[in-house]
Amino acid sequence: MALLYRLVKLPDRFQTHVFTFVVTKSVTRDPDRDVTSKEFACGHQKWSITFSRTDKMLGAYLVWKSASESVRVYVDFTFTILNREHFSVNESFAGKQVKFTTDCPAQGNRNYIPVSDLYGRNFTDANGEFQLELSIGHVRTVYDTEFGVPTSLTSRLMHHHHQIQNHHNPAAGNALQHQYGTASPRGTKCKLETSYFTFGGFDWNLALYPHGVKDVSCTSVEGRMSVYLNRCTGFDHQCRVRYMLVLGDGEKRLDSGILDDVSDSDGKSYGWHPRYKFSELVTKGTIRVHLEMLLANTLSEVISSIVITGINQHGVSSAASSGVVASPTKTQCYDRDKHAWSIRSDCQSETVRLHMVYKDIQNVPRNHLRYVCWTAYLLRYHGKTGHVEPVPLPGAPFSHYYATDATDEGIIMETDISVKEVSTCQCFPPRN
After folding, report:
1. Angle formed by the axes of helices 151-166 and 170-180, to 10°?
2. Torsion of CA 52, 92, 75, 1, to 10 degrees
3. Who wins on pLDDT, 4 or 419?
C-alpha cells in the first residue's frame, strides 16, 4: 500500500503541493500486482499514484482520476524516494507540463529504480517500507471543443443583421420577433451548448446566446453575445470560479482574459458579454472554444450580529464602563461534504477576531487525518454606492489537519478591523 500521511502547500506562484507517502513492502513483494494509493486532490483535480513491478525494476506513475472528454491537464511533478542516510542520495525523476488525457491518464517512469537498490542503498527500513514524496504544481486544466451552429441559425442571423441595417421601425422588429421567437438568455431557441466536463468536483458546460441578454428584435444590443459557464452538479453551495475563455480561431478570435465569476445555488453565473458579432466568429458552421479553468471553490456566507456596549455614539468608551463588552452570536455553515462549522465573533481585543470551530470533527474517520484549507473574507458594504468589497483576512489562506475527536478547540482568525469601526458601521459579514 501507499499511505498518504503528510501534505505541505508551498507559498510559490505555482501553488506547489508536496505529498508524502509511506510505501509498504507489498510494493516490492508481489510483482504480479500493481499497488495504487487512495485518491487525493490537487489543482482542482483528483489523482492517485500507482507502482508497477518487474523482476528487477520498480516503476511509479501519477494517475489522473477525474478524466473527462475533451479535457487536457498539464502538470509539473517530481517523484522522490527519500534516502534514510542523507538527502543528497535521494532518487528522483521529474516532468514539466506533462499532458494527461482520457486516452493517457497515467504518466511516470516504468524504470524508476532497481528493486535491489531500495534495500542495498538504504531506502527501506527494517520492515521493508520506504517514504516517497510527490511534488505537484502548475496544474492547468484546458477544455477544447466547439459550438456547432445550425445552418438555419446562420442564415437567420445574416438576414437579421441585414434587416437591422435597413429597417429601424417597430413593424420590422415585430416581424423579426415573430420569425425567431423569444431569445432571452435563458431561452431555448437561440442557445448553443457544449458537452459536459469535470473540474473541481463539479460538472460544467458552456452556453452561448447569440443575441445576448435581449431578444432578437432589440437593436440596442446588436453585436453583443452572452456566454455562460454553467455548473451542472453540486447545488448545495455557491461557487467562486475563475477561468479564461477564447472563442473563434485565427483572425476570428475573441479572448476574454481572466474572468472572476460566482456560480449561484442554481449553477448559474453572471456570464461574459462581449461586444462582438456572433456571425464573425463562425467558421464552417462552428465556433471553436478554448477554455482554461483556474479555480472553483465553494462559498458559505455567514452573518454575525455583534452587540457592543460601553461605547457611545461617537465611538468613545464611556466613563461608567470598564471597557468594551460584546455579545457575539454563533453562526453555523456547512462545507461541501456537509460537515458543520461554526463561526463566533470575538471583540475582547482591539480588533475583531473570528473563532472557527469544526463541529463535525467526530466524523473524521479513525486512523485518518482530514486536511482543510480555506480563505476567509469580510464583506464591506459601502452605503452610498451599494458596492460590496470582499476584504481578505490577514494570514489567509488558512489550513489545518483534523483527526477524530470529541470536540474541536477551534482556530482564531485575526482581522484588521477595529472594534471601534464595527461599533459604528456593523457591516462586515464573514465569508469562507
Report:
1. 170
2. 40
3. 4
What totals of helices (H) and strands (E) does the chain contain, helices first? 5, 28
What is the three-class DSSP state of 289?
strand
Q: Where are the beta strands (DSSP E) in 173-320?
A: 192-193, 197-199, 202-209, 226-231, 238-249, 252-263, 286-299, 307-309
Q: Are 35 and 147 in contact (CB under 8 A)?
A: no
- Per the CB < 8 A criterion, the answer to whether 404 and 362 are in contact is yes
Give the Cα separation of 409 and 43 in Å (integer). Answer: 30
Q: What angle do CA 77, 82, 85 make, to 5 degrees?
A: 155
Kindly tell me if the per-residue pLDDT of 219 is higher than 60.
no
d(CA 360, CA 338) in angstroms, rounded, equals: 9
Distance between CA 185 and CA 213 in Å, rounded?
5
Residues 6+ apart with CB under 8 A from 203: 196, 197, 231, 232, 233
Q: What is the dihedral of CA 289, 138, 5, 365, to 10 degrees?
A: -30
Q: In the numeric block, which cell numbers belong to residue 109? A: 517512469
pLDDT per residue over 150-175, tens digit each? Answer: 876 656 555 554 544 444 444 433 33
Q: Which residues of 389-403 are buried (b: 16+ CB within 10 A; e: fewer)?
A: eebebeeeeeeeebe
Name the residue type at position 321.
S
**What is the grid cell recorded at 157?**
442571423
CA 394 to chain centre: 21
Please name which of 152, 213, 203, 151 lies closest in space to residue 182, comparing C-alpha atoms. 213
d(CA 91, CA 76): 17
